[in-house]
Structure prediction request, 274 residues.
Amino acid sequence: MTEIEKTLESKTVRPTAMRILIYKYMADKEIAVALTDIENAFAKADRTTLYRTLKTFEEKGIVHQIDDGTNISKYALCEPGCNCELEQDLHLHFHCGNCEETVCLTEQKIPHINLPDGYIAEDANLVIKGICEKCSG
Amino acid sequence: MTEIEKTLESKTVRPTAMRILIYKYMADKEIAVALTDIENAFAKADRTTLYRTLKTFEEKGIVHQIDDGTNISKYALCEPGCNCELEQDLHLHFHCGNCEETVCLTEQKIPHINLPDGYIAEDANLVIKGICEKCSG
DNA sequence: ATAAAAAATGCACTTCCGTTGCACTAATAT
DNA sequence: ATATTAGTGCAACGGAAGTGCATTTTTTAT
Ligand SMILES: [Mn+2]
Ligand SMILES: [Mn+2]
Ligand SMILES: [Zn+2]
Ligand SMILES: [Zn+2]
Prediction:
């Protein structure tokens, strides 16, 4: 049993062929991927399957969904041991206006914000737009 | 000439009847509005006109577009003298999971973030999700 | 005032992404 | 071996954003 299969099973996701391929695809990429990206990478698979795979991965805490402001949902593998729901694990995301790529900056946590009275924070999303390290070189 | 007409003209936007109505509608609301909201409020007007009015307002710095993570673009009037493009004027937005409303927290500026080497920030979007002051009461 | 030009509006249609229903197939449990 | 559950594929739908073009309204020039 491979490392990936073990990872999936540890999150109670059955390691089907398709799921292993998608996991591998995402692990090899250092950037967040859209459904369309996966669709293009696996042309013979049906979009619905890929879509539902991402949903399953998300529900089981294998990936987290990223809203980078492009109105296209992106996904990235969670770090080992990450708890995306918890405030302490909320990292920011960077979207490059040049290459259009979105990356997790997992080291950069979202700072705690003091809200006006009555407001209760449950989640936060911080996206920085600009030029990425690859494009600014 | 009314106050609103003067405001529009000062931003080089011709104060047509429709535009004045939309401006007034947004000024009366304390929350960010979607195109659909305006569409419902002015049922006899065509969606395209409303759509293009918002675009014009945005280009001329009368409103700013808000991406609150719902994948529905919201718009809110800019504060007098605000320069949304500048980092110093970037405020955060709050989206309530209960009433589904989005508000500008214009007092809460987005804190400056130190990015890894090579990353150049040009814009930022910070959305806090939770329960708003009206719903938490 | 009249005509020409420019701007705004309305209608129809398209595109894109996300999502769902249902049938079919593969895997698992009894 | 059979029943049950989980995964996949196909087809269609839906909402929201966006565009091309005809028509109307407003502005400008004559
Ligand atoms: Mn991330
Ligand atoms: Mn705002
Ligand atoms: Zn880049
Ligand atoms: Zn609320």
